[in-house]
Structures are given as C-alpha cells and as structure tokens.
Predict the 3D structure of the following.
Amino acid sequence: MTPSHDAQYSLVVQHMLACGGGASHTQLASWGVESADVARMLRRGVIRRTRRGYYVLPLTGDPSDRWQRERSAHLREVSAIATSGTVTGLRSAALAWDLPVSSVPKRPEVVRPQRSGSWPGVRVVRRHLPSHHIAVINGIPVTSIEWTAVDIALDLPTPLALITVDAALRRGASQPQMLRILSDRGSVRGCREARQTLDWADGHSESPLESRGRGELMLQGVPRPWSNVSLRLGAVEFRTDHWWDGLGITGEADGRGKYDGPTAPTDPVWTEKLRQEWLEEELGILVVRYVDREIHRGPVEVEARWRRREARRTHQLWVPPSALEIFQRPFPGSSDPIRWFRHRDEGEAHFEDRIGRQMCLTFLSGMELGP
C-alpha cells in the first residue's frame, strides 16, 4: 500500500466515521473513490460489504461486549443505506438514540413516504412523518425520541416495548407528547396495546429486565408496582426494583446486566443475599425474585410466587418498624420531588389504617396500587 493510498484510505475512513461508520457506493464515488479503490479497500480489510453497493467499517472495541458490538454493527449498516427521503425508525432509531431494545433487528428499520417502494434487505414502514419529528445523529436522519417510542409501542407487545419506552422517559422524553403522537395516528393497527404501553411506562425503571418483568406481571393481572423505591432504617438503606405499597412485597429482577459497569459490587450474589435477609428478617417484607430466563420463557412461575405472597398478606397484615422510611427518589433530570410512602415519624396506627384501606381496595375491588 503506497503512501498515497494510505492518505486516501484514511480520508475515506474519516468520512465514513462522520456518517456513522457506513457508506453507499454512490457516497464513496462522491468522495473521489473509484471502483478499483473500493476493491482494494475490501481486500485490505479497510471496509467490508454488507450488501451490494453498501459498505461499513470493521468493528473495533471490546470483543466481549456482545451488546455494543451488535449495536455498532447494526448502526453502521443503517448509516450505509441512509439516503434522501429515508429516516431511520423503530428499533434502529432507538439504537441510534442509545436506548435499549428487546433485540437488535436483523435488518435496518426505516420510515419512508407512504407511496414509496420496497427495499430489499430493509424493513420499510410507510407513513407520514412530520419534519419536526426528525433528528440527525452522527449524520443519520432518525425519528425523534418520542416518535421512536410510539412506533415501538405500536410494533411490539407491551412487555417488550416497555424496555425502550421506559428508557426514553428516563432520558427525558415527554410522555404527554408520546400520547399526543399516538392520538394523532387515529385507529391504526396496534393502537390499543400502544396506549396501554404508554400508560404503563415508568421512567424510574432502570433496566430492561425490570421493565419487561413489570409488564409481564401486569399482563397476568398483578397490581402495578412502584419502581425503584428506597427503604431506609437507621444507617441501612436498600432500593427495591418493584414495590407493592401496602402489601409489604418487593420484587427483585436478577439479570446479569444489573451487575455490569464500574460501580458493580465485587460480589453481587452476596450483596443480594444480605439485602434479602435484611428485607425479610429486619423489616418483615416478602421478596419475589426472578431471573431473566423465567421472564423470557413466560412469567407463570413468577406470577405464582407473587400470588403466594399476596395470599400470606391476606392473613397477616404487614406492620413496619416505627423508624422505617419508604420513599422514591426522582430519576436523573426529573423535576419531580421525592415521593414519600412512609415518613419516619408516621405513627403505627395511622400507617395501619392507611394500609388497611389500600388492601381492601386491592383485594375487594381489584384496583391497582401503583402509579
């Protein structure tokens, strides 16, 4: 490879990185890259072909991070097909916004005008897209974060859609705006389930497993829980993934991703054991644990465990320690105040009366306890 080739290829790589890591043959030609140069770069491994006329840069980074590699590979394929009149949408757009999705799509997902044709190897959704709901990320036109969330709510079952919609709310997306977007669509396919998804969405949820687990349990008729509620007694404080206020029941989603990252505990299993012992022995709280494989294959076993704990509460009212505080902190970027379920100075008689009324509503009327 001659120095002139080195300089040319370096410039092509810079151009492709600025466009998200991919380019079409037409784009390469506009940068002065001839067909012979394309063939040479393919042989040298500078680029690779994803389909006829579309190319991406090879992936770099930690090979053990499967999720990020799949995301990066998909987004580079998306960037290679980005053309005028095409906007990246649905799960492809969610990945561009760095939102979690139920699974990385096998094909790029795009939104095009209603009378546009099909596109081999690309999933095309045809609908009118207002210009103010188009953003640009790394040179790629994508649907706005609210529009993306609504599209996914229309496209996927509620538990899977909540993975993305919850995360969008946590990132600052507007739930009222999502509802307006859905309302403006009218009676389109999937609108009823999409409305349910948006109503059930909760920005306090912190992981895909928490979001999907909550959705699967609610579909089985389990009352809606509050997400990530803190319980504090003296100097000890733990946060629960799900909290059924008034029942003294918590839900814990034990997914592997829960322990990833620089702040993960050195021994997560021991940490979870200590937390469960504290909740059960010190506070008298009932714990429902579940792992990702249980939710993926169906939540029947998890629901049965929850029902057994609910049945125990019908015979034994939960009375917390007098000094226990229960509250929910706002998620980052939210202007909401701390939500208090129980203050330290709340008298036991007052607490028992309030909980008794809530339990009656739950068991006699079937009303939900959650937000």
User: Anything to note?
Assistant: Residues 256-267, 359-369 have pLDDT under 50 and may be disordered. The chain has three domains: 3-10+16-56, 62-200, 208-365.
